[in-house]
Amino acid sequence: MENITAKKKFGQNFLKDETVLRKIVEAMPNNDNKIVEIGPGLGDLTKFLVDVKSVDAFEVDTDLCKLLQKKFEKEIATKQLRIHCGDVLTAWKSELIDESYDLVANLPYYIATNIILKALADPKCKNILVMVQLEVAEKFCAHEGDKVFGALSIITQSAGEARLVVKVPPTAFEPQPKIDSAVFLIQKQSDRFDKDFESMLRVAFTQPRKTLMKNLSAVYEKNILQEVFEKLSLAQTIRPHQVCTDDYHQLYKLTRSLDG
Ligand code: SAM
Fold first, then answer.
1. Distance 172 CA to ligand 1 centre (A)
2. 227 a known binding residue?
3. Does ipTM top 0.85?
4. Would the pTM count as exceeding 0.95?
5. For position 260, what pLDDT does the model report?
6. Following DSSP, what letter does each residue of 69-117 receive, concatenated?
7. Is 164 exposed, middle or buried (0-12, 13-18, 19+ CB in 10 A)?
8. Would you call 140 helix, strand, or coil by DSSP?
9. First to last CA, the chain
């Protein structure tokens, strides 16, 4: 593997299965947006991306940055590829990318949720096509009533639509991870959530098996909640995963207006 030893601390599992790489590229929305890739690694996905789009890639591992700079000398010279060497969580500043972009990446799993939430909150990001742990992908793609429906599913539905593209077994990677992975796509359509909405959701799902009323009463007055639940025709016994995204938005608006 190009004289590089995978570093566990950076979540390095390199995707080697060409069929999966092609499926990612095929699922890319057809538009003129540039691409932000996080964790290009050995450049196997990057190679496909720079063929069709201009790419900004963030890589934390300096050994890999050097390798990528050699491998993509031509694309870097023509500005088809920009490599930002450093931790994406500090290096990725909104002003770095001054146009609409799609996030396409086989993400480092230990920070995947964090990165996806950041991209969802960024109006310049239009679509998110990423590989993550299967369990995490299922949470982002879940619908009301599903067992894993939760805060991440509602945040996603507030921004657009999500769908699972392909499930990926450990054998597609080198070295092989212990868990299954999946690629999923979020096509953003609106920006209906903000940090306060996200905080309310966290409270709503603090104890998923308890009633929504019980969870929310940690923060809101009981009489306000009773009034809001009545207005929305929500039973007081309803559990957090049984309430749809639109009702969460109504609930958020009404509790804020009544709470003063
Ligand atoms: N894209 C490559 C592929 O598909 O084979 C590599 C994917 S590997 C799962 C994750 C990559 O993210 C690694 O190259 C790793 O070094 C990089 N990475 C990990 N933490 C990072 C961070 N905080 N900022 C930027 N890159 C990071």
1. 16
2. no
3. yes
4. no
5. 63
6. HHHTHHHHHTTSEEEEES-HHHH--GGG--S-EEEEEE--GGGHHHHHH
7. middle
8. helix
9. 60
Q: Is 87 annotated as a binding residue?
A: yes
- Rounded CA separation 179/57 (Å): 25
What pLDDT digit, counting tens, does each position of 140-159 carry? 999 988 989 999 999 999 99
179 pocket-lining for ligand 1 (C-beta < 6 Å): no
Per-residue model confidence as pLDDT tens digits over 66-112: 999 999 999 999 999 999 999 999 988 877 888 999 999 999 999 99
For residues 189 and 236, the answer to whether their CB atoms sit within 8 Å is no
Integer Cα distance of 191 and 232 in angstroms: 22
Nearest to 158 by CA among 117, 114, 111, 212: 117
**177: DSSP letter:** P
Identify the three-state secondary structure at position 186.
strand
Q: Give the distance (Å) from ligand 1 centre to CA of residue 98.
A: 23
* Measured distance CA(164)–CA(142) in Å, rounded: 10
Q: Is the pLDDT of residue 192 over 90?
A: no
The verdict on whether residue 15 carries a ligand-binding annotation is yes
Average pLDDT over residues 2-7: 84
Taking 3-state DSSP, the helix, strand and coil percentages for the chain, each rounded to the nearest 5, stand at 45, 20, 35
Mean pLDDT of all residues belonging to the chain? 94
Given a cut of 80, whether residue 1 has pLDDT beyond it is: no
Sign of CA dihedral 246, 239, 155, 193: positive
> How many Cα atoms occupy the beta-carbon half-sphere of 3 within 13 Å?
3
